[in-house]
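Sharing a chain and its predicted structure for anyone who wants a worked example. Both blocks are below, sequence first, tokens second.
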Amino acid sequence: MNLPHIVRNYLDRRRIPYRLITCTAGDSLIQIAAQLAISSRQMVRVALLKDDVELIMAILPCSYVLDFSMLCQALQRDLEPLYGVETSHFFQERGCNSGSHPPLPEAFGIPALVDHSLAHNETDEIYFDGGCGNALVEMRGSDFRQLLNQARWEHFAVPTDDLDALISSHQELTPQYLSCFTHRYTPARVCEGIEAITELPEMPPIAQQILALRNNHQTTLRDLLALVEQHPNLAAQVVYCARSPLQGHYGAVTSLETTIERVLGIETTLNLLLSASMGQAFDIPADGPMGLHSFWRHSVYCAALVSELVNVLPDPVSIKPGLAYLCGLLHDFGYLVLGHALPARFFVFNRFLTTHRNVSLQAIERYVLGVEHWHIGAWLMHAWNLPEELIVAARWHHSDDCTRPHAEYSNLVLIANRLLSQIGMMEERNNRLPALALFTLGLTRDQAMEALVRVESRQTELDALAETLRWVPEE
């Protein structure tokens, strides 16, 4: 629980009393507040904003969201938030742990904007991230205000409770209402549509190497070991996956070679590592119906269900089981892209999904995000030269009547999604099984439902696998 030098030296220099509280590394501030029974209004978070002139640190309660219309009116400037990765880099370059953002603008040498809601906490304690990842700093509200006496105080944020009340109001969800509402809570410079998303990361080098091995039919165990052994984080994920009861191996996992050769197999290892390494290129919130937790859980269940369906196909000759499984894992790839590229809109999008389950997913995506996830996912997959089968599954997995080449893969994902909606995993809000897709694959409704029962029986193991894929261990 050692604070970064920049934070400790600053607090000591200001001679303001504080104490440290241990917290769980990796949890969000909202989660930590709940665990410690701290009011979310007393937990402070940071948003870094920028324009062509300078970088500004916005400081607000963690249960509040930026209102860009208020922000623009107060400052007479159009500011936009830094992407999650940019924010992490800013603090990491100054000695903080990844994901830790202390609200101490003077320590970091940048101007600050503080929401007036924090002025009401003169006597109550204030809590904030200490910068080391596993400790909160606690101090009196009056002392925290003293730290920010050079900052500008304005009203530019609203409680998420107020936001939820607006979203769940009886206002008709017309395209105009959705668009106007979304613009209020997103930066002015964000345009509509796919053209707005111009600064996407390239495929991570490690993912490129894994994809190259996967595309090479002559890849051997030695080739895979040579790659994995160079990356301790990948090796840790491989071993962790192999120890899951899902793999049906009950002996000791004593080496990487044993893990890959006897437990997972080369293709399964490559599929899992490709998915995890591609996901690491994006930084999206953990919480919410389409947050990182839900993304990997849904993806893992979908992949498992696709595999069960492949196993009962009457004529599976044209289906590659490993590729079908990978389609299940990556079909919602577009959500990672959108959450990374449009963080403010993605926040509002998740709020709408939570409170409007009767509105079609496509309508909310179109008018809140400006583009559907299947469109942007297929677009980036194509740019990254992923296999055509994956692109088709990402692009057409919501289509009931796709007859394009490789449609069998998108149809398998479509059926799996409709089945999962029947047990509350609702990417698809339509749980009616697609008759044409079942017919073209030669599946019956009974076979599909039996496959769902088998997947449900493995819930504990699948949840553990989802946790592994979203886990990014340190090198």
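Comments welcome. The chain has two domains: 5-158, 282-470.
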